[in-house]
Amino acid sequence: MKKLFISLITVFTLAKIVNAQEISGTVVDERNLPIFAANVYFKSNPHNGAISDLNGYFSIPYTYDNDTLIITFIGYQNKRIPAVELEEDSKNIITLNADPVLLDEVVIAGTTPISEQFSTEKLSSLDIYMNPISQADPLKAIINMPASTNSDESANPSLRGSSSDRSRVIYNGVPIYRPVRASSLNNIGFFSIFNPEMIDVQTVYPSNPPLITGNASGGIIDISTIKKISKNTYQLSAGIGNIGFSMGQKLQGKSTFIQIYGNWQNSYLLKKINTKSLPDMKSYDTKDVGINFRYTLNDKMYFNSYNYFMSENYNGTSAMLAYQGNLKSNGLRYFSVNNFVIFFKKGMFKINHGYNYEKKEVLFGNNILNSKDYSHYASIDYKTDITKKITFQTGVSLDNQNTLVKNKVPLYYYAMNKESPTYNQDTIVSNYILEPYFYVNWDIHKRVSMSIGARTNIPINKQKQYTSFQYSLKYVPANNHTLILSAGHYHNYTQPDYYNLKYRLLKSKQVSLDYIYENRQTKIQSALYYKQESGERDIDFYYTINKTQTLGVEFSISQTLWNYLTISLSNSTIKQEANVNGTKYKGGHNFLYFLKPSITYSNPKLFSIGLMYIGRPGSYNLHYPVLSSRWNSEAKAYEPIYSQLEEFQNRAYNRLDLSMSKYMTFKTCTLTVY
How many C-beta neighbours within 10 Å does residue 401 have? Predict the structure, then answer.
């Protein structure tokens, strides 16, 4: 009888262990939104925990009744739950409460840009991955925003009617010029050079760029890399034209780590599928590697170094003036972004350094273009809280750019046949931009904030003296509603290119009013803006755009249904005038409509699929019509004879994209297919 009693107890005990061997549940925040990558573990076995997935779901082996389940996530209070209180199925809903994180009296918000509250859009790496339209490309992820007015097939950002010359991409406080791959003669690149796996936040300022950064007169995309990793990760990604990998390895706790990624892009499949839409592109091939190393000395100091290597080649056809022919280009690139940051009780001190080396060769007709770019960037920033409501930031930056050119170019601009005469063009062009600045943010009231910024240059090598300034006001009339008013005067320099082997100073005056409404499932944005831009570069050697005026209206709405299905619609109406020697023409971004409807289904357990349409009228261009021509025996080509300058409009642009992606997570590995 005793043996039977012991056997029954054993059976019931084993049954309980079997039934309770797995505990699962969902981690959410105070708004009942899922928390991704929360750490879940039992106190007795912290090394055998789990990470919540994109839906906040986790599953973990059960230990024993007297144990405690611990849930942690940066920015939230730790949660401790006695094991006996846990359900034996997935009904465990665990809510984490927000908690401002302090590092030995150092507020982690010190790393947040002082101007961030005046931005209109913020994207995390997860936002980029889960947007199938972006194809895991950080810069392509902004294309469906109403503020993006990119009118070509490139990843180059063009914001609110400004050319890509005026917009800047900032990476950990350092400007990255030409942030694209698979580029051709005009620096049009099909992919950006960034990997979302390393991105913490991508912040978009579509106009009125904050003056904590210089050399921008359009908009800014500010990218910062991640600050911590919770576990070692390994990822593979594959798509039509791309194969990549990435890994993250903790070296000392969560704050000292190294990340490595590599990509290979090839046009074979993309060209097979999109032959008609890419008629001028024959092939491209790029290979790149990025390494990010972050070393945390202590709670108040860290060092971060990001290094990037790339090789690329492009083959296609291009047309310039009366010549059309094959275009080939190849290049090498290396750049490094380094940051050293010290926190203190009421602020932050930061040193930034960037270096870029770029070598490029382009063959087009009798053009043989060889260029090497060397650039250094260094800045010192100091931020402090003067009072609880006033934050002050100041600093100085030096941006030194050098371009060494050894070109063989046509002796006669119109004669690009290989048999036509050429001359050697050997030169070095340099630019030094030395600028001190200050920026003040004042939280006047719980619902009202104001900022003032100014930035001036210290002229070097006969530069013109200029001063940029801006004013911004943010008003929150009610919960979920935000109004942002900004105005300013800005300056920046162009980058040398085929048309202009010099750095030219650009200027802009602009004012914008943005409205944002956002809750859990609905987001509405609208904007009204005006820009007056001058200092445009020469176009085709013939004429100069003296001034461009742009008046734009934006509207977008996004609605999420059943947690996974999102329907969005955006439209921009832009009236743009270009002034050429006193005569007004329609600008290249003059669009009666710029429609971008999309439908996206993103279910982390299944897949993500997106259907997006882009439709707009054709772009306006200026040209001198050719009346006739005469043979020039010395040039071995016909010399065109032109009439008066006139504008013409290209055909309407329509594009429909169907994109699919699958983001799969395993214990330490992830796989992205798109």
Answer: 22
**What torsion do the CA atoms of 136, 140, 141, 142 make, to the nearest 10 degrees?**
170
Residues 402 and 505 placed together within one structural domain of the fold: yes
Query: Considering only CA atoms, which of 110, 136, 138 is closest in space to residue 123?
Result: 138
**CATH of residue 246:** 2.40.170.20
Are 81 and 123 within one domain? Answer: no
Token pair listed for 618: 């054709």
Amino acid at 595: L
Query: Are 142 and 80 found together in one domain?
Result: no
Determine, yes or no, domain membership for 542: yes
Domain holding 121, by residue range, is 110-673
Q: What is the pLDDT of residues 438-456, one digit of tens each?
A: 999 999 988 899 999 999 9
When computed from its CA atoms, the radius of gyration of the chain, rounded to whole angstroms, is 28
Burial (Cβ within 10 Å: 0-12, 13-18, ≥19) of residue 298: exposed
Q: Which amino acid is at 537?
A: R
Model confidence at 25, in pLDDT bands (50, 70, 90)? Answer: confident
C-alpha span between 243 and 223 (Å, rounded): 23
Contact 346, 389 (CB under 8 A): no
Q: What percent of the chain has pLDDT over 90?
A: 36
Assess whether 340 and 476 both reside in one domain. Answer: yes
Residues 197 and 91 in one domain: no
131-158 pLDDT tens trace: 666 777 888 888 878 898 887 767 788 8
| Amino acid, single-letter form, for residue 15 | A
Please tell me whether residue 533 adopts helix, strand or coil conformation: strand
Kindly state whether residues 275 and 215 are assigned to the same domain: yes
Q: Tell me, yes or no, whether 15 lies in a domain.
A: no
DSSP assignments along 392-442, one per residue? EEEEEEEEEEEEEEEEEEESSTT--STTS-EEEEEEEEEEEEEEEEEEEEE
Instruction: Tell me: do 36 and 159 sit in the same domain.
Output: no
Tens digits of residue pLDDT in 314-351 = 888 887 777 888 888 889 999 999 999 999 888 899 99
Provide the number of structural domains found in the chain: 2
SS3 198: helix
- What letter would DSSP give residue 2? H
